Amino acid sequence: MPEADSPDTQPLPDVVTNEEREYREWADSLSVSVEALREAVEAVGHSADAVRDHLNARKA
Hints:
The protein is mostly helical. It contains three helices and no strands.
């Protein structure tokens, strides 16, 4: 089990979407379309962990 302060247990940073470029960068890093990212952020907020979980649940 990873230590509490190991990088594996650190939350991801918030999805910052102040500019279109940021949407594209986050969408690329999560392997989704910009539209899917926008919908996920609208549904669950800017937490990258929550966005990732939401997107993964949609794929399942």
